[in-house]
Write a structure and sequence with these properties.
Blueprint (H helix, E strand, L loop, with lengths): L5 H11 L3 E10 L2 E10 L2 E8 L5 E7 L9
Antiparallel strand pairs: 1-2, 2-3, 3-4
Length: about 70
């Protein structure tokens, strides 16, 4: 089965978001398996989703520590 390793996913994610990797796990996004690479970007937690098969970044999700309450 072709695909990328966790190490490759981390390198790809760090090209998108600079910081320190704190966690990596496999999740399903839009029917595809992705690596969810969690990066600490100067106090912000950013998840970078990397497709396991292609290595493409399929999305990012940022949680700011300053944004604890929702201002909708």
């Amino acid at each position: 089965k072709a695909g990328i390793t966790e190490e490759e996913a981390i390198k790809i994610a760090l090209k998108r978001v600079d910081g320190e990797v704190t966690d990596i796990e496999i999740e399903r996004k839009q029917g595809n398996e992705v690596y969810a690479v969690e990066i600490d970007d100067d106090g912000d937690e950013v998840d970078v989703f990397v497709d396991i098969e292609t290595g493409a970044v399929v999305g990012t999700e940022r949680d700011s520590e300053e944004d604890e309450e929702d201002d909708d």
